[in-house]
Amino acid sequence: MAAHNPLLPAAYDIAWSAIAAVALALTVVALIALVRSAGRLPAGLLLLWALLILFVPVVGPALWLTAGRRTNSTTSGNQPERIRSES
Questions:
Q1: Is pLDDT at 73 greater than 60 in this prediction?
Q2: CA angle, corner 38, sides to 32 and 51, nearest 5?
Q3: Whole-prediction pTM value?
Q4: Crossing angle for the helix pair 43-55 and 11-36, nearest 10 degrees?
């Protein structure tokens, strides 16, 4: 029987640590993206997104990175104008 070394973490400890690191990285990326677009969002919506990102791990940042950016660009009024072809 192999001796168990108490100084080496079990496989599930390594897996949970990796999952936590990914969740933390996703939250940091989402917060940075939110801060960069803060000038184009109303204060209430900015606060709502920040709370969602911080208090709903993984789902909040994923929602901001997928849906929040799109609502940001469509509500900001900074859409590019269509080029009209002259015929």
A1: no
A2: 70
A3: 0.70
A4: 170
